[in-house]
Amino acid sequence: MARAWHLKYRPEGLPTADNFEIRDVDLPKLKDGELRVRNRWLSVDPYMRGRMNDVKSYVPPFAIDAPLEGGAIGEVVESKDKGFAKGDLVLHMAGWRDEAVIAAKTALKLPDLGVDPQQFLGVLGVTGATAFFGLLDAASAKKGDTVFVSAAAGAVGSVVVQIAKAKSMTVIGSAGDKDKCDFVKSLGADAVINYRGGPILRGLAAAVKEQGGDGIDVYFDNVGGDHLDAAFALAKPNARFAICGMIEGYNKAGPSSFRFIMRVIAMRIRMQGFIVFDYQSRMDEFYKAMGAMLKSGQVKSEETIVDGLDSTPEAFLGLFKGTNTGKMLVRL
Amino acid sequence: MARAWHLKYRPEGLPTADNFEIRDVDLPKLKDGELRVRNRWLSVDPYMRGRMNDVKSYVPPFAIDAPLEGGAIGEVVESKDKGFAKGDLVLHMAGWRDEAVIAAKTALKLPDLGVDPQQFLGVLGVTGATAFFGLLDAASAKKGDTVFVSAAAGAVGSVVVQIAKAKSMTVIGSAGDKDKCDFVKSLGADAVINYRGGPILRGLAAAVKEQGGDGIDVYFDNVGGDHLDAAFALAKPNARFAICGMIEGYNKAGPSSFRFIMRVIAMRIRMQGFIVFDYQSRMDEFYKAMGAMLKSGQVKSEETIVDGLDSTPEAFLGLFKGTNTGKMLVRL
How far apart are CA A83 and CA A79, in angstroms? Predict the structure, then answer.
């Protein structure tokens, strides 16, 4: 018997604890090629909100009355696949529950990089790869660029800040309170804007000026809305925007308004939406580069940890309130 | 003595005839390296509206109480430059007037391609180059793509439609009345949407379905606003948008709203703003390719002609009412 969080009904707007229900589930007997894993760490991510809507997207929607899914690190407790042994730690997608039976081919044995296993849900996982490929590929960011990163204290943003500094860029971050701004500063950002302290456009203009520049070359967008509009307003010629997330829009039905979108033309802005899964074939390059940056101390893993399976919805909902600094994780 | 249209005061919102005043101007005596030209054709273009605002952009704003500028074809009536002789036809920027004294280095003697001279203001000029480089470079459009073109009966749009058909793409255009839709159809478009006949999103969805497709690969944006939002809504994975103009926003102060901009992420949309002047170094490539398409009849020059210098503001204002089909020109 396992316990798994189910989607009870689809949220409209901001989800609440009521959308989720924990239920007992029977685990089937293992067949050949399957593993039984006991989860140690669960990942909660903003993109999961999208899967709670009944719309076609790059991942299928969650089904009602079925266990939710998500990245997880588990320990193999029983194996019917010769590639895995009892005690192996694996990365897989049967999160939001304490125990699961999974196909061995959907599990990745953690490579031995001498790091804590939960880092494969964070800086060495989808989160870190999103930061890495978004900044360096989608936005073509390079040495000397001035980079604006929204939600810079978040899981992805905090890694973007560190990679950008490791590559000799000027970094301006935004975050939602003083503690987070201090955290972003501690990651090496040259300037940090508290976006709850006034219009983000005013804050960004001041930060740009303070850095002695006259605009931004790169915007890494995790937020959308006013942040994106401020980036339009302050983009330099040939600026590149990596559009990674628009958390501001995930929970609202209404449109987003932009006063400065027309600058896309005059400034020849390139906006590139991207999904980390498109970079699957380049993960070796990522492990190598990120492993080196971790080893050298240029990138540090930052986590907010919530304990216990029962707290999973709380951890997930916290993403939209901004209660996390760095990667949000549930420890079982 | 010459007559030249001056900007009397800056428009707010839609310009009116009252913003312009025709005044007599003295022409200075020719110095070495200068030409006196009598204009035969004047170009009016949507981008000129931007220059009427007092804001920094890719071209400096027009000055108050000074003659307006714009592309023109003139005949040299006096030359103090050995590169030009009386009777030469030249392309230059001292439009909005009947006669001008210009530096010879700012004039281009029309290459002898056996075409009417005014085509160098249209399909063989900035207009045609905008269509050519926007479609094939900024949007990377290629054979087999489904291309959506807004303002498809306009100067740039009508050339985009023809190039796209010449390159074996499926073309869906939009235009603002039945006559224009018929015109776009006559250019070879596979489907045409009358955007005054209902929401553009509904029209585009129907056109896409009618073509047996499930979305668009390329959007050539001349309009912004609801057209751009419909393109977000119906973009296929890895769609490319060339952002050429947003005429819907040129005369309004308020923001533009988008319901579907978040699809930039899921569909990995690339939006690329561009300015034709950035392709200056590739004009030979353009003359060669466009010259061949004109000769073969794959591209035809389409013009709306207004007669007389006095009608120049009327021609310009007509751009925003959509009174032109193809390139809007003033004939002197």
Answer: 9
